[in-house]
Specification:
There is one protein chain. This protein is α/β, with parallel strands linked by helices. It is built from 13 helices and 21 strands. The chain folds into three domains: 217 residues, FAD/NAD(P)-binding domain, CATH 3.50.50; 112 residues, FAD/NAD(P)-binding domain (3-Layer(bba) Sandwich); 113 residues, FAD/NAD-linked reductase, C-terminal dimerisation domain (Enolase-like, domain 1), CATH 3.30.390.30. The strands form five sheets. Strands 1-2-3-4-5 form a five-stranded mixed barrel. Strands 7-14-8-9-10 form a five-stranded parallel β-sheet. A five-stranded antiparallel β-sheet has the order 17-18-21-20-19.
Length: 468
């Protein structure tokens, strides 16, 4: 049994479902194949969305346990109902996945719930979850299968004692001691959830710093704040292996610089050392498509692979593994396939850590600009000097803007502070339009708002800040 389509998308995550909807809007007969059983991919089901729900709930719990006292709100005897917290998280995920199914129906996208693989470069064979087989013939096929957690030799994930980010979202009780392997975005976010709920949290990182790739000044400040919150960091430390029993996990460690070995015991381990493209089982060898050593699929500027009619986006190709990056690529791919112009500025894609405080960045770091030999001016403004931050008791952090010393064009921006993930959008938009620090400095910002710190940082690029 075969059906013909203009486009078949393999993968129903942020890149795949957005590409499917946009293609259908542009008049293409479109099908999307997803084996999970629910749409939305890792992000919606076991990533971005459930983790943010738990971050929000854990912040509320921490406030109720004492943080509100300074505001004159005394709450005594607050207790944790972890079962209810998890139920709320699951409800949010379920509502959103059902919402995507509704959007598919609204836009007339055919949804095939099963595993898709290439029969050849024009046909996708779908092993439906209900047990049947379906062949989908297509003029174009898009690979949008996302990524999976990276493994670590000697550390076996069982989702009980040693968990991936997926398991960390559904623990049945609060760990007494949680050890996080990897000081990246995901590990620090999940560590924050369980620390607020009562866990002792130790982060083990192979490098000598946290959040690799982040602006070094921001990362250093970020680590200092997390340490004040109760995080313990073992940096420059390699994990040699892990063993478990019914109640304990033991990690064997080695200092990278001193060649000294040690052990650390805990009741739960979160393995969070990055993600890798998920392309196994797609039958890529059938069509002569071979990913590189990192599992990435090479594409041109129109997302075309070396195989005519086969395309790829999202975590399967170059660039940051971010849901919003995949969404942008999905939209642009569909529009280009329809003959329209497409554009994506990879230097204007923000990265956000949803801890408290949040950390958000876009464009170049100071280290990158120095390495590239680019002359720049930096403007920085602390939230301690921002009136709204004082009112909100959210004075941790600062805004930093990096601008070309000759043209004043903004090359990068970095924010650590409350609501940084929302605030960064202003600077992303300015960069997308090729704007300068002076453009931001001369834009009126409402008072009192946290965003005034952005204006002040822009003024500080030319040493004209008013309030610091």
């Amino acid at each position: 049994m075969s059906e013909k389509y203009d486009l078949v998308v393999i993968g129903g995550g942020p890149g795949g479902y957005v590409a499917s909807i946009r293609a259908a809007q542009l008049g293409m007969k479109t099908a999307c194949v997803e084996k999970r059983g629910t749409l939305g991919g890792t992000c919606l089901n076991v990533g971005c969305i459930p983790s943010k729900a738990l971050l929000q709930s854990s912040e509320k719990y921490a406030e109720a346990c004492g943080e509100l006292a300074d505001h004159g709100v005394d709450i005594k005897g607050a207790t944790l109902n972890l079962k209810q917290m998890m139920a709320r998280k699951d409800r949010i995920v379920n509502d959103l996945t059902k919402g995507i199914e509704y959007l598919f129906k609204k836009n007339k996208v055919d949804y095939f719930n099963g595993h898709g693989a290439f029969a050849d470069s024009n046909n996708v064979e779908v092993a439906l979850n209900k047990g049947e087989e379906q062949i989908l013939e297509a003029e174009a096929i898009l690979i949008a299968t996302g990524s999976e957690s990276t493994s670590l030799p000697g550390v076996t994930v069982d989702e009980k004692r040693i968990v991936s980010s997926t398991g960390a979202l559904s623990l049945s009780k609060v760990p007494k001691h949680l050890v996080v392997i990897g000081a990246g975005y995901i590990g620090l976010e999940m560590g924050s959830v369980w620390r607020r709920l009562g866990s002792e949290v130790t982060v083990v990182e192979f490098l000598d710093r946290i959040t690799p790739g982040m602006d070094a000044e921001v990362a250093k400040y970020f680590q200092r704040v997390l340490t004040k919150q109760g995080f313990k960091f073992l940096l420059g430390t390699k994990v040699l292996g892990a063993s478990t029993n019914k109640s304990t996990a033991v990690l064997s460690l080695a200092s990278v610089s001193k060649n000294e070995e040690s052990e650390i015991k805990c009741d739960t381990v979160l393995l969070s050392v990055g993600r890798r493209p998920y392309t196994k089982g797609l039958g890529l060898e059938t069509i002569g498509l071979e990913p590189d050593a990192n599992g990435l699929i090479a594409v041109d500027d129109s997302f075309q692979t070396v195989v005519s009619g086969v395309y790829a986006i999202g975590d399967c190709i170059r660039g940051a593994m971010l849901a919003h990056k995949a969404e942008e690529e999905g939209t642009i791919f569909a529009e280009m396939l329809a003959g329209q112009a497409g554009h994506i500025n990879y230097n204007a894609i923000p990265g956000i850590v949803y801890t408290w405080p949040e950390v958000a960045s876009v464009g170049k770091t100071e280290e990158q600009l120095k390495e590239e030999g680019v002359s720049f001016n930096a403007g920085k403004f602390p939230f301690m000097a921002n009136s709204r931050a004082r009112c909100n008791d959210t004075t941790e952090g600062f805004v930093k803007i990096l601008a070309d010393s000759e043209t004043d064009r903004i090359l990068g921006a970095h924010i650590i502070g409350a609501d940084a993930g929302t605030m960064i959008a202003e600077l992303v938009a300015v960069m997308e339009f090729g704007g300068a620090a002076e453009d931001v400095a001369r834009t009126c910002h409402g008072h009192p708002t946290l965003n005034e710190a952005i204006k002040e940082a822009a003024l500080a690029v030319s040493n004209r800040q008013i309030h610091a």
